[in-house]
Amino acid sequence: MPRVVTLTTDFGTGSGYVAEMKGRLLHARAPITLVDIAHDVPAHDIRAAAWLVGQACPAFPPGSLHLVVVDPGVGTTRRLLWARVGDQEFLCPDNGVLSRVLASVPAPVARSLHVAPAASATFHGRDVLAPAAVALLEGAEPASLGPPAGPIVRLSWPEVRETATGIHGEVVHVDAFGNLVTNLPAVLWPQLAAAGRLRVGDHDVATVVRTYGDAPRGTLVALVGSQDAIEAAVVEGNAAERLAAGMGTPVTIPCDRSP
Amino acid sequence: MPRVVTLTTDFGTGSGYVAEMKGRLLHARAPITLVDIAHDVPAHDIRAAAWLVGQACPAFPPGSLHLVVVDPGVGTTRRLLWARVGDQEFLCPDNGVLSRVLASVPAPVARSLHVAPAASATFHGRDVLAPAAVALLEGAEPASLGPPAGPIVRLSWPEVRETATGIHGEVVHVDAFGNLVTNLPAVLWPQLAAAGRLRVGDHDVATVVRTYGDAPRGTLVALVGSQDAIEAAVVEGNAAERLAAGMGTPVTIPCDRSP
Amino acid sequence: MPRVVTLTTDFGTGSGYVAEMKGRLLHARAPITLVDIAHDVPAHDIRAAAWLVGQACPAFPPGSLHLVVVDPGVGTTRRLLWARVGDQEFLCPDNGVLSRVLASVPAPVARSLHVAPAASATFHGRDVLAPAAVALLEGAEPASLGPPAGPIVRLSWPEVRETATGIHGEVVHVDAFGNLVTNLPAVLWPQLAAAGRLRVGDHDVATVVRTYGDAPRGTLVALVGSQDAIEAAVVEGNAAERLAAGMGTPVTIPCDRSP
């Protein structure tokens, strides 16, 4: 079977940068299946990239190779990495984009990539990561790419806190439907069901359901979504717009039913 | 040759849901070619999905497998289907997304999919359709996926009506150029040519041409487009904006030339 | 290895036209790898398409076949071409989309395609170019597609001029980050470094750097970008918005440091 190679960038689609990378990757003398994860990561948003990488990459077959190019520090002293996390491999800048996939991995196997003097200072995705990928696809050992990386950059991720008034978290992702995905894990479902509501910023989401279609169109609902996390949604509508909420908006499962 | 597997969703590209599905599909122990039909179907818009599926899917090689995930009823009692229509196969919710490909097929071969208890309630594309696709790709018989489906949901589609004043239809699709595709079939070309104009809402489109470039830039034109239907367009411009028209706007081929 | 076939269009993604072309291409009885260059070329913008084609297509493996369908003249007397430029092949309208890849090629090998009478007048990408691609992929000789093309259309491209006050060019591309790519080539780096600034429209870009991260966030910088050209950027920001600049905005490397 061809090896899967994925791309996650903030390049947009209209600029040709993604195509330049694909062109280089397809020079590999080995069959590959190219997959776009996303190219509309908000520009320079390492945190958004880390979310996507954590959500999408573990779904791929063992041995898949994931190139992540959200790289505001390109050409500076920040390092470039090859890393193996579980059964997946990554090529990316050492700037935190692996934070979520590394959440439960204390010390991944990783290498700090050699950068050839001829590489541009502004497009290491094309000039360093793509050639490294081609080398790996053609059978090179990761050790040939550079020395062991040692500790790699991890962004802090918002933590869930429990207080006298409830269990507190925040919105960590807004999807294309406007669903508000929180960092409250699915295991808090009994507490959510008992509370019967979720606070999102200053708003009360007072309908707790099993799936979107369990309430009439337009209803604000709280549920366990597909990311094993509690989320707020509007049935066939857009919760982010309705609640003027987004990344970082605080959410709370209140510890009693009083408003 | 690898089997073609297509995806049509309303997930957008930035949320990772499409990538989660592709990751699962690529676990199949069989070579596949993944093709994106579109992921920017308007959220929850079954009718728009049905249009796209009807336009694009029949163009693919025999035996292609099309996953369609525009599914506002996910997790409720609506069924999930496998269907063979002509030489194409589909996996989708039973909510009308097949309406256009089924237009001339009275009783397709279809199965109602088993849903495993472990499936999430909110993402059946990933948790039911993708595994069913993998099973099919690896040689499973459709009959193993579930019982015969019986009648499946079909949306009503606007009909062409003929009256004393003309032949009446409506806009059924607006493409990215702003061209207004109608439900008036190409066989009405002689009537359009004889009338010399097309009414679109309150506007007269008074130039009838064979192709866009047959009139000067900026001209409002009526013609037979690539979907075997009569459409209204602005040469190198945007008819939807110019005429403030869209899905459902009435169109008429008047039966004489008087205004 | 499968042959690479790329697509560059102004169709958008939601209309199904791209999928119709892919469906036809996948009928080829030969293994192919389909790659999207871009489908969000501004509608009818031949110049923008020519830029993208020049940037992206040369990056692909020898023998790749590039379909370019930005074609406001579809169905008129404009010709359709097959061309071999360097080690890449193209199928496209003869309207200038090859201008940049042809910049240094006086007389490419090219054929003017036969158009079958049954082809639609409005979608030659699907009805002429895709079948020609299938024929080539299945081993047809280019000569079988039509007669030698003779001279083909080339758009004039803005030239760099040197005057007493400096070296003058213009913005020729704005990428998704808002970086302003100019037609001033990378070989002018010493002059830029000596001047210490770049004029962009009425604005002075007074920080010259080697890469984006060499100045604090929000700084306006001039540098040599990844397209071997001088560009203006805002560190982790958007230069096009900040300077209200775009395609055609004049840029100058002043010949002294006085403002």
Classification by helices and strands of chain A: alpha+beta
Share of helix among residues of chain A?
10-25%
The number of domains of chain A is 2
Oligomer: homotrimer
| Mean pLDDT reading of chain A | 95
Strand content of chain A: 25-35%
CATH architecture of the largest domain in chain A: 3-Layer(aba) Sandwich
CATH topology of the largest domain in chain A: Rossmann fold
CATH class of the largest domain in chain A: Alpha Beta
Given as residue ranges, the uncertain stretches of chain A (5+ residues, pLDDT < 50) are none
Which sheet architecture does the biggest sheet of chain A show?
Answer: 8 strands, antiparallel
Largest interface: A-B, 38 and 32 residues
Helical segment count of chain A: 5
Q: C-alpha Rg of chain A, in Å?
A: 21 Å
Defining key terms:
259 residues; alpha+beta; Elongation Factor Tu (Ef-tu), domain 3; 2 domains; eight-stranded antiparallel β-sheet; 14 strands; 17% helix
Short description:
3 copies of one chain form a homotrimer. With 259 residues, the first copy, chain A, is of the alpha+beta class.
Describe the structure.
- Three copies of one chain form a homotrimer.
- Chain A is α+β, with helices and mostly antiparallel strands.
- Chain A folds into two domains: 3-145, S-adenosyl-l-methionine hydroxide adenosyltransferase, N-terminal (Rossmann fold, 3-Layer(aba) Sandwich), CATH 3.40.50.10790; 161-254, Bacterial fluorinating enzyme like (Elongation Factor Tu (Ef-tu), domain 3).
- Chain A is 17% helix and 29% strand.
- Chain A is built from five helices and 14 strands.
- The longest helix of chain A is centred in the middle third of the chain and has 14 residues, at 124-137.
- Chain A is elongated, with a radius of gyration of 21 Å.
- The N and C termini of chain A lie far apart (57 Å).
- The model of chain A has no long low-confidence stretch (mean pLDDT 95).
